[in-house]
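Hi V.,

Quick status before I head out on leave. The structure for the redesign project is tokenized and pasted below; the design run finished overnight.
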């Protein structure tokens, strides 16, 4: 352990971030104090919500500080410990990504078993990504067997799991939108009943895929997708609003949705949610997902970029939709 590399926020982007938004900084490897551990990160996550944290605005999490390392979900091996209950060599999940070595209180780390699944899975299907899909679909949108489900950004980390979980829980029909023909084919391979490329027109494609309407919409995109979903939703339809990536880099107010008045007559429920409010369903999530992975009925995709120095490029690629499934950086 001779040196540590971190990615700092160099400037606050206006619109789309660029490589110049970030700075690679070399520091010393930290030394743990009482109750602390040092983790050599193996994988870190880049996620759409991180774009909002680059703005200096009040939100549900504090903004990233300028000239300081970013943070986010990561997993790695403990290489130094001054904590009684976490030994050197343990594999832990924590929230200090965007760096090679992380110093943190042991209470902020969760030990995981690398023998159960590849360690990267704890940042995707077995982590917050999987719990987001599970809780959003089953708790927030309260999907019932036989219902029609529409998922936007369905080839992404969360969306691809939402569609599969919907089928496993008895949905009558599952529809997904994605950004390329290859991603559309992947959705069909995952068991989606219908899938379309949103570049071909969301409203028309959704109408064709769901002639009897939509009961549940899982929203990762907002904008024209939300507008199309509102038009297609049946009476008492429910939408779980997970993200709105279509407007994260926008500098002008969004043009859509323009049909919110339909919410009244259709008695729709549009409910935003954060996964941190739903840890009570974790036992059911772990039980179900572990079983589905074990018997091969649930699949997950990962797009892995190698090297901490390439974390900014991975994040920018995520915003462009370059990833299939979860975008991760192998540190």
């Amino acid at each position: 352990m001779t040196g540590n590399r971190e990615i700092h926020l160099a400037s606050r982007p206006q619109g789309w971030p660029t490589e110049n938004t970030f700075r690679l900084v070399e520091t010393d490897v930290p030394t743990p104090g009482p109750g602390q551990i040092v983790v050599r990160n193996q994988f870190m996550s880049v996620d759409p919500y991180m774009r909002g944290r680059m703005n200096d605005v009040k939100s549900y999490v504090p903004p990233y500080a300028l000239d300081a390392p970013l943070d986010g979900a990561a997993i790695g091996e403990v290489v130094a410990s001054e904590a009684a209950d976490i030994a050197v060599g343990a594999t832990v999940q924590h929230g200090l990504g965007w760096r090679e070595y992380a110093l943190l209180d042991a209470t902020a780390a969760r030990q995981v078993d690398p023998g159960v699944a590849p360690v990267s899975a704890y940042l995707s299907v077995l982590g917050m990504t999987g719990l987001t899909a599970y809780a959003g679909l089953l708790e927030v949108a309260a999907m019932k067997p036989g219902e029609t489900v529409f998922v936007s950004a369905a080839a992404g980390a969360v969306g691809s799991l939402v569609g599969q979980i919907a089928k496993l829980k008895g949905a009558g029909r599952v529809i997904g939108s994605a950004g390329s023909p290859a991603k559309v084919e992947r959705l069909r391979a995952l068991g989606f009943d219908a899938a379309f490329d949103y570049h071909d027109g969301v409203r028309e494609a959704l109408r064709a895929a769901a002639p009897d309407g939509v009961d549940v919409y899982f929203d990762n995109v907002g904008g024209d997708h939300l507008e199309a979903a509102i038009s297609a939703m049946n009476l008492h339809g429910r939408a779980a609003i997970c993200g709105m990536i279509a407007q994260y880099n926008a500098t002008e107010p969004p043009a859509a949705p323009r049909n919110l008045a339909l919410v009244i007559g259709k008695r729709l429920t549009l409910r935003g949610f954060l996964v941190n409010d739903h840890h009570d369903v974790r036992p059911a999530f772990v039980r179900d997902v572990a079983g589905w992975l074990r018997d091969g009925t649930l699949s997950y995709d990962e797009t892995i970029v190698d090297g901490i120095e390439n974390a900014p490029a991975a994040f920018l690629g995520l915003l462009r939709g370059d990833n299939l499934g979860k975008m991760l950086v192998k540190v």
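Above is the designed sequence. The two ends are 14 Å apart (CA to CA).

G. will cover questions while I'm gone.

Best,
W.
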